[in-house]
Amino acid sequence: MIPSSSGATSASSRSRLASAVKAILVHDGSALSWEDVPEPIAGPGEVVVELKAAAVNRRDLLVRNPPGPSYRFELPLIPGSDGAGVRRDTGEEVVIYPGLEWGERDEAPGSSWRILGGPDNGTYAELVKVPEENVYPKPERLSWEEAAAFPLAALTAHRALFRIGGLRADESVLVLGAGSGVSTFAVQLAAQARARVLVTSSSAEKIERARELGADGGVLYTEGDWAQEILDLTGGGVDLVLDSVGTTWADSARALGRAGRLVVFGATGGPEVTLDVRALYLGWKSIRGTTMGSRRDFGALLEMVERGTWQPVIDSVRPLAEAEDAHERMVRGEHFGKLVLRVAP
């Protein structure tokens, strides 16, 4: 349980705050606290959502411990990009698109683009204020926890696979790091699109669980030359690799077949890498970067959710007040799928 910060209101004083709600805040020194905050008020073109569930993303850890200026926001701040709940003004059940001011071009966001949960207050709260265009009908077949689990991670996977990666039904894709939120969605979405899916992992158990989600198999990156193993398994390399590690670009590119595409969207292993440039261009290979996705990408994702039969993979569910425990589990790399925070029954 996260202790209240010294600035949080006591139980007796909270009764005097008619418009206070509970939320998790990031303070200086990366600490999280569970405290009272003013109730958000919707302005023109905005809505307030009474959240039922939120979900944890690696981005939330970076907001707490910024690796660079792109994650340094004014504090205190309510983190969280994923959420599902009830639209307060209409009573509709909704899921939240986590992008703000993406712009009109699907190829890349505009200069004002940002992600909910930094610098804008996010979903680790009982209430959240977002633009009206950011709320979409909650998929009926999903529970509150499942609906909260998919927006940012599944959107990242969907855009990487299809708009940026150009994956087709007759192609093969390698997803690095079986078990993360994005990778589990990538496996499920690629399998739904009838592509052949392979994964890497440090755990044979996680590879087996990826098989249950639709993967054909995988290799252990902790043993031997995993890129060569992929070349051997596929008879010459995959058509597409999704890489969120960064330092693995050289091996990821090597695992590609001729004219293969490497799509990158993270740097969990570090921000620098050395590549064999000749092998890249002589193999007609390409590297493309992506992050999150546009509202049109989100609409396409929702269509796949509606047509599909898979469920978002949820590692565990905790009360919102125990967000710290969820963050620690993510840091330890023990999770498989999404870590979800229950906000309200």
Describe the protein in words.
The chain is an alpha/beta fold and 345 residues long. The protein has eleven helices and 17 strands. It has helices spanning 11-14, 58-64, 144-149, 151-164, 181-192, 204-213, 226-234, 249-254, 277-282, 295-307, 323-332; strands at 20-26, 32-38, 46-55, 82-87, 93-96, 99-100, 114-115, 127-131, 135-137, 172-175, 196-201, 217-220, 238-243, 256-264, 286-289, 314-319, 338-342. Strands 3, 4, 5, 8, 9, 16 and 17 form a seven-stranded mixed β-sheet that branches. A six-stranded parallel β-sheet has the order 12-11-10-13-14-15, with helices on both faces. A two-stranded antiparallel sheet has the order 1-2. The longest helix has 14 residues, at 151-164. The protein starts with 10 loop residues before the first helix and ends with a strand.
Essential attributes:
single chain; 345 residues; alpha/beta; Quinone Oxidoreductase, Chain A, domain 1; Rossmann fold; 2 domains; seven-stranded mixed β-sheet; six-stranded parallel β-sheet; 17 strands; globular; disordered N terminus
Unreliable spans? 1-17
The best one-word shape is globular
DSSP summary, beta strand count? 17
Main sheet: strands, sense, barrel: 7 strands, mixed
Distance between the termini: 18 Å
Mean of all residue-level pLDDT scores: 93
Beta-strand content bin: 25-35%
What's the CATH architecture of the largest domain?
Answer: Alpha-Beta Complex
Helix run count: 11
CATH class of the largest domain: Alpha Beta
- CATH fold node name of the largest domain: Quinone Oxidoreductase, Chain A, domain 1
Into which percent range does the helicity of residues fall? 25-40%
- CATH H-level superfamily of the largest domain: Medium-chain alcohol dehydrogenases, catalytic domain
Structural class: alpha/beta
Report the C-alpha radius of gyration, rounded: 20 Å
Number of domains: 2
Spell the H/E element sequence.
Answer: HEEEHEEEEEEHHEHEHEHEHEHEHEHE
